[in-house]
UniProtKB/TrEMBL annotation:
Cofactor(s) in the UniProt record: FAD
FAD-binding domain boundaries: 127-362
GO molecular function, one term: monooxygenase activity
InterPro entries noted in UniProt: FAD-bd, FAD/NAD-bd_sf
SUPFAM superfamilies found in the cross-reference section: FAD/NAD(P)-binding domain
UniProt name for this protein: FAD-binding domain-containing protein
Pfam family, one: FAD_binding_3
Organism from which the protein derives: Cercophora newfieldiana
UniProt KW Flavoprotein keyword: yes
Highest taxon of the lineage: Eukaryota
Keyword terms of this UniProt record: FAD, Flavoprotein, Monooxygenase, Oxidoreductase
Length: 391
C-alpha cells in the first residue's frame, strides 16, 4: 500500500473532501489540489438543506466520531415547517408541515457550507496543496498527472478526480466539451443578519416572494433554527434570487462583495412588509455577496467515452440551480459512491470509473432535470441549448 500511487483530486470543495475522507478511511493515498490559498480565501456560500439521501451518503463515509461532530453542527428545524409569504403584504401563501422537507426524525436538517467543509477536511489537511490551479491532465503509461496553470505537473497518480466546480477544466477535457454549464441569466445575493432580525418569523423554513416588480419577481429563502434563534450572537443567512434582469451587479462584476451587494439587496426590498425588513436593515453588510444561477444540460448528464483513470464529481459534472436544494446532496452521493467503489477495489482498478459514471448518470440526470424544472417556475429561466450562453 505504501507504494500505491495516490488518487489525485482537483478542488477542495465538499464533494472532493468527502471523497478524501472515504479514501482516508480505506488507507488509499490521495492528494488534493486547490486553486485558493486557504479555506478562508473565499466566502463559503449559503446554508445547505440536507436530504435523507444526502445524510445517508455522508454517514456512510465518515467514521462515527466525525459524523457525530458533523451532526452536532447541523441545525434541526421543526416548528412551523415550511411557510411561504407575500413579501410585500405579509400574507401567508403556502404551508408545509415539517415532514414535507424532513430528512431525519421529522426535522429539516441544514448546515453552513463552511462548517461542512471544515468537518470534511479533518485529518486531510496535510494532503492538500494550496494555490494549485488544475487546468488539465496528461495520461502516462500507467497513471495520470494533473497540469497546473503555471505549467508544472503533479506527481503521477493512479486516478484523477475532477471536483473543481462549474468551471472544471478536467470536465471539459474529459468529456471533449460535452459537459456544459449554462448561464440562466438569473442572479442572486447571499446575506446574513443577527438572529434578532428574524424574530418576526419564528422557527422554520421560509420563502418570501415579491411579484410586484415590473422587471420580474424576487424572493428569499431562509432557515431559522430553534437552538439558535434566541441567541443574539448568532447570525442566520438568507439567499435572495431574482428572475433574469432583476438583480444586477455593478458593471456585471459578480465577484463584488460587501456594501455594494448589501445596498442592492436593501433597495430591492425597500417596499417589503415591516415584518421582513429587519433581515435587510440589520444585515451584516461585509458578508453580502452576489451569485450567478447556472445549470448543467437540463436533459441530463451526457455520455462521453470512459477514460478509466479520470472522472468527475459534484458541480463539475452536474451543476444545478438552487431550486429544490438538491445540488450538494447529489454531490455527496457522488463522493460516497466513488469512494465505496475504490474501497472495494482496494484503490484504482480498471472498470471503477465506468461503473461510477453509469450509476451517477442516472441519479445525476434526474436531479438536474428536477432542479431545472423547478427553477423554470421559480426563476423564470429557460435554457435553449442552441443559443444559451455557457460559463
Amino acid at each position: 500500500m505504501a507504494t500505491q500511487k495516490p488518487v489525485l483530486i482537483s478542488g477542495a470543495g465538499i464533494a472532493s473532501l468527502l471523497l478524501a475522507q472515504a479514501l482516508r478511511g480505506a488507507n488509499i493515498p490521495f492528494r488534493i489540489f486547490e486553486r485558493d490559498a486557504s479555506f478562508v480565501f473565499r466566502a463559503q456560500g449559503y446554508r445547505l438543506r440536507l436530504s435523507a439521501e444526502g445524510l445517508d451518503a455522508i454517514e456512510s463515509v465518515l467514521d462515527p466520531p466525525l459524523f457525530e461532530k458533523f451532526w452536532s453542527k447541523c441545525g434541526k428545524t421543526g416548528g412551523a415547517g415550511f411557510s411561504a409569504f407575500n413579501a410585500v403584504t405579509g400574507e401567508q401563501t403556502e404551508h408545509l408541515v415539517p415532514e414535507g422537507l424532513a430528512s431525519r426524525g421529522g426535522k429539516i436538517v441544514g448546515i453552513a457550507r463552511g462548517d461542512m467543509r471544515q468537518v470534511f477536511a479533518e485529518g486531510c489537511e496535510d494532503n492538500i496543496e494550496w494555490s494549485k490551479n488544475v487546468t488539465g491532465y496528461e495520461l502516462t503509461g500507467d497513471g495520470v498527472r494533473a497540469i497546473f496553470s503555471d505549467g508544472t505537473k503533479s506527481e503521477e497518480g493512479s486516478l484523477l478526480v475532477g471536483g473543481e466546480g462549474i468551471y472544471s477544466k478536467v470536465a471539459r477535457q474529459l468529456s471533449g466539451g460535452k459537459l456544459k454549464v449554462y448561464d440562466t441569466g438569473a442572479r442572486g445575493i447571499h446575506g446574513q443578519a443577527p438572529s434578532t432580525a428574524f424574530k418576526g418569523l419564528g422557527e422554520g423554513v421560509f420563502r418570501l416572494r415579491d411579484d410586484t416588480r415590473p422587471d420580474g419577481a424576487i424572493f428569499i429563502i431562509t432557515n431559522i433554527r430553534p437552538g439558535d434563534k434566541d441567541d443574539p450572537n448568532v447570525e442566520f443567512g438568507w439567499t435572495m434570487g431574482g428572475q433574469p434582469g432583476v438583480i444586477r451587479a455593478p458593471n456585471d462584476d459578480y465577484s463584488i462583495v460587501g456594501k455594494e451587494a448589501a445596498k442592492i439587496a436593501k433597495d430591492l426590498t425597500k417596499n417589503w412588509h415591516p415584518r421582513f425588513k429587519p433581515l435587510f436593515d440589520q444585515m451584516d453588510e461585509a458578508n453580502a455577496a452576489f451569485w450567478k444561477i447556472t445549470c448543467s444540460t437540463p436533459s441530463g448528464v451526457p455520455e462521453w467515452p470512459n477514460e478509466p483513470r479520470v472522472t468527475v464529481i459534484g458541480d463539475a459534472v452536474h451543476s444545478m440551480t438552487p431550486a429544490g436544494g438538491i445540488g450538494a446532496n447529489t454531490a455527496v452521493r457522488d463522493s460516497a459512491l466513488l469512494g465505496r467503489l475504490l474501497r472495494e477495489a482496494g484503490g484504482y482498478a480498471p472498470g471503477v470509473t465506468a461503473e461510477y459514471e453509469k450509476e451517477m448518470r442516472v441519479y445525476g440526470s434526474e436531479a438536474v432535470h428536477q432542479s431545472y424544472s423547478t427553477a423554470v417556475g421559480q426563476f423564470g429561466v429557460k435554457i435553449d441549448e442552441a443559443t444559451s450562453e455557457t460559463v
